Amino acid sequence: MFAGLLVLAGRFADLLGRRRLFKIGLVVFTITSGLCALSTSIDMLIVFRVFQGAGAAMLVPASLGVVVHASPIEHRSHSLSLWAAAGAVVALRERGWVLPPAANGGAWDAGPPLDASVPI
Fold first, then answer.
1. Nearest by Cα to 57 from 116, 5, 16, 20
2. Which of 19, 55, 78, 87 would be a feasible disulfide site paired with 28, CB 3.0-4.6 Å?
C-alpha cells in the first residue's frame, strides 16, 4: 500500500500543499498506529495497517517537499542528505540492523515499529 501510493501522494502534495498533506498524513498515521495497537483481530489489524501505509505514503513526499522548499539553495544538498540518512536509519532500525532489540538493557522493548513512530 505504501509504495503504491507514493506517486499519488506526491501529486496530492502539489495540489493541496506540502504542509497540509504532511499534517493530514501525520494524523492518519498516528491514529491508525493507535488503532493497530488496539485491534482485537487479524482482520482489524490488516485494515488499520492499510490505512497506516496510506498515511506514511502521504508523509514521505510531503516531508521531502517541505525540506526542499525550506532549505536555501546553497544548503539544499546537505538538507536532502540528512533527510535521506534519517530515513535510512529508521528503515534499518525497523529491521533490527542498527541496534539489537534488547539494546535498552533488557527493559521494556516496544519493538521496531513503535521505535520508528516515536520521532514522528
1. 5
2. 55
Residue 103: Cβ within 10 Å count: 10
8 A C-beta contact, residue 18 and residue 66: yes
Instruction: Map grid coordinates 496510506 to a residue.
Output: 54
Instruction: Give the C-alpha distances (Å, rounded to integers) separating 80 from 21, 85, 108, 120.
Output: 19, 8, 34, 17
Domain locations in the chain? 1-70, 76-120
CB atoms within 10 A of CB 78: 10
| pLDDT tens digit sequence for 94-115 | 666 555 555 555 444 445 554 4
Closest of 111, 113, 7, 109 to residue 57, by C-alpha: 7
Instruction: Fill in the amino acid letter for 52.
Output: Q
